[in-house]
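If your schedule permits, I should be very grateful for your opinion on a structural question. Please examine both parts with care and let me know of anything in them that strikes you as inconsistent. The record follows directly beneath this note:
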Amino acid sequence: MSATNGRNQPPGGGVRPLRKVLVANRGEIALRVIRASRELGIASVAVYSDADAQAPHVHVADEAVRIGPAPSPESYLKGEAIIAAAQAAGADAIHPGYGFLSEREWFARAVRDAGLVWVGPPAEAIAAMGSKTAARKLAVANDVPVVPGNTEALSGPDEAERVAAGYGFPVLLKAAAGGGGKGMRVVNASGEMRGAWEAARREAMQAFGDDAVYVEKFIEGPRHVEIQVIGDQHGAMMALGERECSVQRRHQKMIEEAPSPAVTADLRARMCAAAVRVARAAGYSNAGTCEFLLDRAGNFYFLEMNTRIQVEHPVTEYVTGMDLVQWQLRVANGEALPDVGAIEPRGWAIECRITSEDPSNGFLPSTGRIEFLRVPAGPGVRWDSGVEAGSVVGLHYDPMLAKLIAWGATREEAVARMHRALLELVVDGIETSREFHLRVMEDPEFRAGAVDIQWLERRLPALLESRPSDEDLRRAAIAAALTARRDSAGGRAVATGGAGSVAESAWVRAARSDGMRCP
């Protein structure tokens, strides 16, 4: 579509085409939106903090505006400054990406009140789904099953204990305004409730500015399965199938795939229908995701709705052929969704989140300059990144550097392709999660699809202690041999700059995978 094919009705009335969008985010999602906009003929405006002045999204955008110092509260969370930047740049719309202000109802409303187009769901839908307790009520009212639990914020640990006793331990304390595992505690017995209550409230207040918590029955060994939906401004609503997001560490997703190994065609149809009912009841439009727990008996339970584009949206794009970010822009511009009927997945896609963390050291953050970067390529491989060689990785923002996505005709082919792509990936200068993902791809339980949301916590010690792969051992041996040859020659092979130097450099760079430091 060209930028003038759709139409948008701004609050003040009248019709105008979408010509320029400001991206209120950073990193890989900012680049993703900028590229999608450019393909539609829409100009882009990037915003950046002092820490991101040389970031790739700043250089790729048509324009860029500084919004403040490195800390998020002084830059990417300053809604008024972002709206002012959009107005000064002559932007028609703001796309929030994910994280930061993407699910803040007040920001969506402020963007709309400023006469700008909000590339996301209506502020009212964000408000309706922003509280987990309110979302549960909405689900129940529309015949969508939820995990047994209360739908009101609890007054204190004594009330929480009474409610929990009614369901039976273990139970889960959850932040009413939360997500991403913040403000969440498993309570296995009555005596643990008071301490867990205080910890959940404290964490919820720090993360969301709201300390309300509620109780859910804790389901043993479920899968985390979510349904992607998208609706237009004309009443159409589509469900695009499921994603399996069960490989999690401390409630943080690490690997996602589409479809799910556990979902049949019949179950998919029922989950998609439930997601559409919830979205319609919330008055939803644009892209969003309904999250469910799937138990071992095949029963599913609604958890919450993410009122934004998801980190893991590329796996859905691979198996449906739909560009979700472009459709976010199209829908915001007033365009109608295509009438394609039920969507069945084509092939299999897997996504690994490549983060600046050291798995061998408790996943502690790793900072520094990326000195060398080799990006995987080849059929069915996609690299969505916000960094490049020379990028400086600090502690101000989320540690996710990039997303590596692989597609195959079958799950086995997708896993094999991801394994090959991870072997090709080299990031030198900081530690990353690359080796962890490589070991997961080699794990027999993962290869069999035998995962649940507690699987990684159980399996992590074995994954972190496993021996290097045969390929890494081969590369290390080659690097050691080349280093010994260079040392015996007094360094002449490297210093001459001849053909031998080029060959040695290539092998040493290959050996740097798995974080090996080679001369």
Summary: The mean pLDDT is 89. The first strand starts at residue 20 and ends at 23. Residues 470-488 form the longest helix (19 residues).
